[in-house]
Design a protein that fits this description.
It is a single chain. The protein has 2 domains: 4-212, P-loop containing nucleotide triphosphate hydrolases (Rossmann fold), CATH 3.40.50.300; 230-339, CobW-like, C-terminal domain (Hypothetical Protein Yjia, Chain: A,domain 2, 2-Layer Sandwich). Helices cover 32% and strands 22% of the residues. α8 (163-172) links the parallel β6 and β7. A 7-stranded parallel beta sheet has the order 3-2-4-1-5-6-7. Strands 8, 9, 10, 11, 12 and 13 form a 6-stranded antiparallel beta sheet that branches. By secondary structure, it is of the alpha/beta class. The protein has helices at 17-27, 46-49, 70-81, 101-110, 114-117, 132-138, 140-147, 163-172, 185-188, 201-212, 243-257, 314-324, 335-339, and strands at 4-11, 33-38, 57-60, 90-94, 118-128, 151-155, 177-179, 230-237, 261-268, 278-283, 286-287, 291-292, 303-310. The protein is globular, with a radius of gyration of 21 Å.
Length: 350
């Protein structure tokens, strides 16, 4: 029996993993593929925004794969291998943007049963050309994602030159192939058997550390907190939101706290067209134009904005959102006071 190839798609928050996955699915290159999507936080959004395939999507949203739910990953892979109708031809695991890939790779390579039936084909890491260098400076997880990759996909090259980050990538991982976002299936997959020896010495060390502490991850963990500074939370409302209100809220939040918005991603019910939601996606000071979907991807038609922030209290963002959407708050200015007041100073923390 031939081992089923498993590819791990990783990359820091907002680097374009879901966009890349959608493009590959539309191209037809991932037929008979099962997708496992891990999200950080209590409300999942990414799995709704991935094009549905014949095999469907498995969402893991009870925590971060690198922290708490590796046993869930093993259970999910086991179910896929034993499902009615046969196992898929390929499996793609999309990690949360905050995931350290080492625990995931160790779980795949060291499990006594899975390692016989699955073959870790390779690690594909997306890197944001705009924020990539700053992200690598600030987050160890991003460094590990790059160092462990077989393929490095440089995204957002329409906004800045790829050369701004590729030199840094080659220094961290000389053996990885660097490709652009329009790379085809053949350039990204079928990497062969994952071989840590082709990476820097740090990669083997990180995997060795995972082997040493294997089985000791059964601690309590808040699924909304990755460390003392990074939090995930969700803003939601049953009411439709007009586009001017939405733009005002995002503009003010971005102006006041842009560097600490690690990711803003959500689906919004607009008053102007409530049957066709728009998708919001932003990273720090860069927000993409809203994209309108032809219909709601599920039965939940609420506006849901998933925020992953650093050093920014969820309560403050929630109160700001409530003020813009018309929910009364004691001792909190409303939308008009913040947007229509000629004395208001843009970017001032409220």
């Amino acid at each position: 029996m031939n081992a089923i190839p498993v590819s791990v798609l990783t990359g820091f928050l907002g680097s374009g993993k879901t966009t890349l996955l959608n493009r590959l699915i539309k191209s037809g290159g991932l037929s008979d593929t099962a997708f496992i999507i891990n999200e950080f936080g209590d409300v999942g959004i990414d799995h709704l925004l991935v094009e549905q395939s014949d095999e469907g999507i498995v969402e893991l949203s009870d925590g971060c794969l690198c922290c708490t739910i590796r046993s869930d990953l093993v259970d999910t892979l086991t179910r896929l291998l034993n499902r009615d109708g046969g196992a898929p031809a390929r499996i793609v695991i999309e990690t949360t943007g905050l995931a350290d890939p080492a625990p995931v790779l160790h779980a795949l390579m060291a499990h006594p049963v899975l390692s016989d039936r699955l073959r870790l084909d390779g690690v594909i890491t997306t890197v944001d050309a705009v924020n990539g260098s700053a992200t690598l400076d600030a987050h160890e997880e991003a460094v590990k994602q790059v160092a462990m990759a077989d393929r490095l996909v440089v995204t957002k090259t329409d906004l800045t030159k790829a050369e701004d980050v590729t030199g840094r990538l080659r220094a961290l991982n000389p053996s990885a192939r660097i490709v652009m976002p329009d790379a085809g299936f053949a350039e990204l997959f079928d990497c062969g058997l994952y071989n840590p020896a082709t990476k820097t010495a740090d990669v083997s060390r990180w995997l060795g550390e995972e082997a040493a502490k294997d089985g000791h991850h059964h601690h309590h963990h808040d699924v909304n907190r990755h460390d003392a500074r990074i939090r995930a939370f969700t803003l939601a409302t049953d009411d439709a939101v007009d586009s001017v209100t939405l733009a005002g809220f995002l503009d003010l939040l971005q102006a006041a706290h842009g560097p600490n918005l690690l990711r803003v991603k959500g689906i919004v019910r607009l008053k102007e067209d409530p049957d066709r939601p728009v998708v919001i996606h932003g990273v720090q000071q860069v927000f993409h134009p809203p994209a309108q979907l032809p219909a709601w991807p599920d039965d939940d038609h609420r506006t849901r904005l998933v925020m992953i922030t650093r050093d920014l209290e969820p309560d403050f963002v929630q109160r700001l959102f409530d003020a813009f959407t018309g929910k009364p708050q004691i001792d909190m200015p409303d939308r008009a006071a913040m947007m229509d007041n000629p004395l208001a100073v843009p970017g001032v923390k409220l």
